[in-house]
Amino acid sequence: MSTWRFDDQDPAQVWFDEDVQGFAPAVRASLERAFIELLEEDPLKNQCEVVQGEFVYIKRIQPDLVDNELIPALLLTYRASKRDKKIRKLELHRAADTAPNGLKSTNAQILATLHRLIAIALNRAKRHDH
Questions:
Q1: What does the pLDDT look like over 16-60, one tens digit per residue?
Q2: How far apart are alpha carbons 92 and 64 in whole angstroms?
Q3: Would you say 34 and 59 are in contact if contact means Cβ atoms under 8 Å apart?
Q4: C-alpha span between 41 and 108 (Å, rounded)
Q5: What range defines the domain where residue 23 resides?
Q6: pTM, rounded to two decimals
Q7: How close are the terminal C-alpha atoms of the chain, in Å?
Q8: Which residues contact 84 (CB under 8 A, 6 or more apart)?
Q9: Which contiguous run of DSSP H or E holds residue 91?
């Protein structure tokens, strides 16, 4: 059993979980599987970006078919603390929403968009941490 756990006291995670409740049941089912995978694997092995001086990890959730409904590729962003083994969810994005020029988007453009979205989430979390 994994020693990693989600931080239920983190304000950003509370908002994240509230947002997820508004998603379609098929999307929530796909996310639940992704959350279980994240707890079972080493969450520090996913792509890591430094945004506003914080390490933010990105887990790509592959497209999924749930109850005959196609769930698009998603990007889950989170913070992870090796010290206390807590994962703090930040944001969930459709991968396509981070590509400003669709299929012609470069990796740099996608990362720039993702960095902007992560910065907004971090600022929101910081305002409520104090």
A1: 888 888 888 888 888 999 999 999 999 999 999 999 898 999 999
A2: 15
A3: yes
A4: 27
A5: 5-129
A6: 0.81
A7: 33
A8: none
A9: strand 86-94
